[in-house]
Design goal:
Layout (H helix, E strand, L loop, with lengths): L1 H7 L3 H15 L9 H17 L6 E2 L2 E2 L6 H13 L3 H27 L2 H12 L2 H7 L5 H20 L4 H12 L9 H8 L1 H5 L1 H29 L3 H10 L14 H11 L2 H14 L6 H14 L14 H26 L5 H10 L2 H27 L8 H9 L5 E5 L3 H8 L4 E2 L10 H6 L5 E6 L3 H6 L5 E5 L3 E5 L5
Parallel strand pairs: 3-4, 3-5
Antiparallel strand pairs: 1-2, 5-7, 6-7
Length: 491
């Protein structure tokens, strides 16, 4: 038995990470209903893809969707094919890739700094940043995006030692660019810095570098070429309106950092000030001139900077920043601890210096470092646990009414603002009345119109407006908050 265990060589750091975050990400993740923006929205797109078998074109509510490339929808649609359509299968890809991202951060930290403790600390920091947990436990694109981002960087680091791996970098980077519009482009300069030693040996590396570029093109170009040819407004909508949010070049040189840094603080909480301390210590002690330290600081700056130049940042937009931030913080604290230890070992009192050198061994220092990080991580989890883990499972009134709307083969209007949720749970195309012409902005105007063969999902109190106008109607279904109404003559 003992020889078998020796051969097994369990990485206990990795095992602990998988157990902790396997529980934190999976536990009751299927309990809450899907949210309207963007979770149910993306779920509906993936469902249409799974049903039609058309993996080249994304559609939502009967219209083409090309805000984002389809990688996240491809993964979700495949999950639907295997497990069926549910809250669990909608969130499963995000959860699995979230755990894999934790593992990759651990491996990246270990690869960069040759210290498993630093990789472990970085993984703990990422996994206990509250908004990372929230988005991993949802069916959004953030978790797939972070996974392909860290996979790209990790494979680039490995390719420096073995250039034959570079085609895999092209595959990972292509998948990254096929997950979210333009955001992943920030990985390109980071890869450039990482791959510089191989680029300088261009004659020996040329074939494999070209192989990586070819792999990237194979992954990315078919979808982009198809959409460029299919939709006249594709470039304007996909790249400018969604990709850059219509930012001008000049705006990238105007700092607007108050809100983004506030959101960053709220997203990672107790790690925020430790990150600032770590960045400062790495710069002051000139550790930043070391190649691997420079890589993570440069990565952190490249990902964060665009968010500091806009007031349109939302808290979840900053999640890609968490990965290099975690690596910077973990390594900065490690180096800060070593600096303090070095100072202690040179105290002027010989007896004290002797005791310090005897008892403050590397094992003791590593244990103290990990103990401090684990304590902070535990406090983080304790504080946000009730925020992210539901205590009860129930169906909300808007979901319940959408499920009832599934049986009506009529034009369905929604007199409210939960359109993605209504579309997902009903499985029907719907028209949100607030998106219609001015004369259809209210329930009353719709019933006064010549529209026929329709039903409307509306708030229960809104039906009183029909009474006030002496308009005939029939309630087909209702619950505490909503009603499905139609004209009596339509039945």
């Amino acid at each position: 038995m003992k020889p078998f265990l020796k051969r097994l060589r369990i990485d206990w750091y990795l095992a602990v990470l998988i157990v902790i975050f396997g529980f934190l990400f999976f536990f009751r993740m299927h309990w809450p209903n899907l949210g309207s923006w963007d979770e149910a929205w993306y779920g509906s797109i993936a469902r249409e893809m799974a049903k039609s078998g058309d993996f080249m074109h994304s559609n939502w509510n009967g219209k083409p969707f090309y805000d984002h490339p389809p990688m996240g929808f491809w993964i979700m649609a495949l999950t639907y094919k295997i497990f069926g359509i549910s809250e669990f299968s909608t969130r499963l890809p995000s959860v699995v890739l979230g755990i894999l991202s934790i593992i990759l951060v651990y491996l990246t930290g270990t690869e960069l700094f040759k210290k498993k403790a630093v990789g472990f600390a970085a993984a703990l920091m990422l996994g206990t940043s509250v908004w990372y947990v929230i988005r991993v436990r949802s069916g959004n694109l953030d978790s797939p995006f972070v996974f392909f981002y860290i996979l790209t960087i990790y494979l680039a680091l490995k390719s420096v030692k073995n250039i034959k791996l570079f085609p895999l970098v092209g595959l990972a980077f292509g998948s990254l660019m096929m997950t979210k519009t333009l955001v992943g482009i920030s990985a390109l300069p980071v890869m450039g810095v990482i791959m510089l030693p191989q680029i300088l040996k261009i004659r020996k590396s040329m074939l494999w570098l070209l192989g990586g570029i070819a792999t990237f093109c194979i992954v990315v170009l078919p979808w982009y070429i198809n959409h460029f040819q299919s939709y006249p407004d594709f470039i304007d909508h996909h790249f400018l309106k969604i990709g850059t949010r219509d930012k001008t070049l000049e705006s990238y040189f105007t700092l607007n950092y108050t809100l983004p840094l506030f959101y960053l603080h709220m997203g990672i909480r107790k790690w925020y000030y430790l990150w600032i301390l770590s960045v400062g210590s790495l710069i002051v002690t000139l550790r930043c001139i070391k190649r691997n330290t420079f890589i993570i600081l440069f990565w952190n700056a490249v990902v964060l900077y665009p968010f500091l130049t806009t007031d349109q940042t939302h808290i979840w937009h900053l999640i890609p920043v968490y990965v290099p931030l975690s690596l910077v913080t973990a390594y900065g604290l490690w180096e800060l601890g070593n600096l303090i230890l070095t100072v202690f070992k040179h105290v002027p009192v010989p007896a004290a210096r002797k005791l310090i050198k005897k008892y403050l061994t590397e094992t003791v220092v590593t244990t103290g470092y990990l103990f401090a990080i684990i304590c902070i991580a535990a406090i983080q989890i304790k504080v946000f646990y009730t925020e992210v883990i539901p205590t009860a499972r129930y169906i909300t009134d808007d979901v319940a009414i959408a499920l009832k709307a599934a049986k009506y083969d009529k034009t369905i209007y929604l007199d409210d603002d939960f359109l993605p949720m209504a579309v997902f749970y009903s499985g029907k195309f719907m028209t949100q009345m607030s998106f219609e012409l001015e004369e259809r902005h209210t329930l009353v105007n719709l019933f006064k119109s010549n529209e026929k063969n329709f039903v409307v999902i509306t708030r229960s109190w809104a039906v009183q407006n029909l009474d006030n106008e002496n308009l005939e109607y029939q309630i087909l279904d209702e619950n505490n908050s909503f009603a499905i109404v139609t004209r009596p003559e339509q039945q």
